[in-house]
């Protein structure tokens, strides 16, 4: 039996793609391994959104050269956004790479491996499926085997926004949408396989509409804000999933675009219990001047109005966001507007990044005139502002009760108490304790919040726990030095030959 190892870098979309890669390989009889010395196929799934992604990939691939020299039969594949961006050029730059695989070509991977083994030659497949979009279902059997509490379902891919800093339209192509019937069928299968939470994925997920249907009005007014703030096909999709799959405990989506936060979407959050009291809504900057240069197609005022509508839709609703500092032309006054936005909205968390030039983006035509020293200084100030907002949010929750979806076992102390980690209905990390014989994974419990840490909460599960399932034996903990991505996927183990 052939074995494979997948290493994942990047965002939730990359994690989702890695799962689809695993499922495609499992159907062909491959078995997963954590040991690169045992793998017949190694797949590096890459992200190109952040700075120096190509250089980091080349460095990683360099460490793989000794392994390929020692075991020439192992097939080395590069997938994801850097693969799409570089294409066949990557084969010339790194001769020991066998396969370059674009995100739309995942289903072809077993056949490409056979081609490499048969023809003894490398191959690149980076063709967008624009005319006949394919969406690979999440495997319910694989989810059941791995006891997944949370899983991803793609509803659309690609992006039509053309933000000047973003490489996604180049690496993921134009927007393509999946039929609601297929989405609902996949969500239902996952829930039947034991999944409790599903996150709908899309580059601008709330721009989704039924394939072949007329999209919602996408035009802007004279200020650059979207005209249509009423109905939303995406909101109708959320309602259909809630109605058709009542066993689903929680339904999330990422990443929405502020331009498509309609009144209908806000009402869905107010009325659908399955939706959490949280949305991750990227803003990128608090300055209208910078937003125009980024071609975000909304104003600060529009973002604040949509944020306030969401915050008012449910008690204790929270918003997290993305920021880019040091975009070309950003002045100190522009940056202060970003700091002011953090205070005005009160974000519960934020991903903050320094601007970096990405190949093929319109922003390359702009002079990168913000020094690295200024970018570093502004990033530090932004982190401080966001952490203050986060601490305030967490502290305000002490003494309240919240529903927690338990995801996995955390550290077990010497006192014999099992400490579990989950997410609140607002997406905060919550740690709870339970007797060591109980298995809380996948349970949807109510917890009293007793303490706020710097980035998480401590909760106490109250009530009768006697009906909860038991563990046959304490779950093994991963070694503390086991390398993992920020999403928990395995990194490539270091071997003696690497």
Structural commentary:
The structure is a single chain. The chain is α/β, with parallel strands linked by helices. The chain folds into three domains: 3-125, Methylthiotransferase, N-terminal domain (Rossmann fold, 3-Layer(aba) Sandwich); 140-396, tm_1862 like domain (pyruvate-formate lyase- activating enzyme, Alpha-Beta Horseshoe); 401-461, Beta Barrel (OB fold (Dihydrolipoamide Acetyltransferase, E2P)), CATH 2.40.50. It is built from 14 helices and 19 strands. The chain has helices at 12-27, 53-70, 81-86, 89-93, 109-119, 140-145, 168-172, 180-192, 233-244, 263-271, 288-294, 300-311, 332-345, 372-396; strands at residues 3-8, 31-32, 41-46, 75-80, 99-101, 123-125, 150-154, 156-157, 176-177, 197-201, 250-254, 278-280, 318-325, 349-354, 401-412, 418-424, 429-434, 444-452, 457-461. The strands form five sheets. It has a six-stranded parallel beta sheet with strand order 2-1-3-4-5-6, with helices on both faces. The longest helix is centred in the last third of the chain and has 25 residues, at 372-396. The radius of gyration is 23 Å and the shape is globular. It starts with a strand and ends in a 37-residue tail after the last strand. The relative contact order is 0.09. Residues 474-498 have low confidence and may be disordered.
